[in-house]
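Usage

Read records sequentially. Each one opens with the input sequence:
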Amino acid sequence: MDELSLYILDIAYNSIRAKATHITIKIIDSIKDNIIHITIKDDGTGMSEEMVNKVIDPFYTTRTTRKVGLGIPMLKQNAELTGGYLNITSKENVGTTIDVTFIKDNIDTPVMGDLIESILTLIQADESIDYYFEYTSDEGNFILDTNEMKEILGEVPINEPEVLLWIKDYMKEGLYEIIR
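and closes with the structure output:
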C-alpha cells in the first residue's frame, strides 16, 4: 500500500473483525514537529502478548482466505524506513492500540491518500460501530464523532446514502481548513 488512508482502513477492518464496537482514529500531521502520527484504538477482543509479536510477521495471519498478512508488517516497515516506528499494545478482552509515526519530510513517507473515503467506507460498513475520528495539524483540529451524530439522527441510520453524503461534505469542509 502506498497511501496511509489505506493502512488506516486495513487496521480498522482488523478491529471490526475483532468485534470492536468503538474505534478511535487519531492523526497528528505536523510540519513543525516533522511527523505524521496515527493512533488506532479499539475495544475489540484484543490479543495476547504472543499474538502481538506474531502480527508483525508477514507470514502470519488469522484469516483462512489467505496465508499471509501484510498490512501491519508493511506499515511497520514503511514507518521504520522513514525513521519512525510502530507500536502495538493489546490486552485480551479489552482491546488493541496501534501507534505509528512517520517522519514527514522523508522521501519514503507515503501520501495520506483519500482519508475521507476511507472513513466513509468504515462508517457505511456497519452502523452499529461508533467511530471517533480526530485530525490535528499545525493549522487546527477536526473531530468527527459518529456516536454524537447518531444521537442527533435518532431513528435515521448513519449509513443512509443522504447522511453519508452530508458526512462527506462535512469532512471535506472541516479538513480543508486545516490541511494545506
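Summary fields computed downstream for this record:
- Confidence is low (pLDDT under 50) at residues 63-69.
- Residues 3 and 154 are 35 Å apart (CA to CA).
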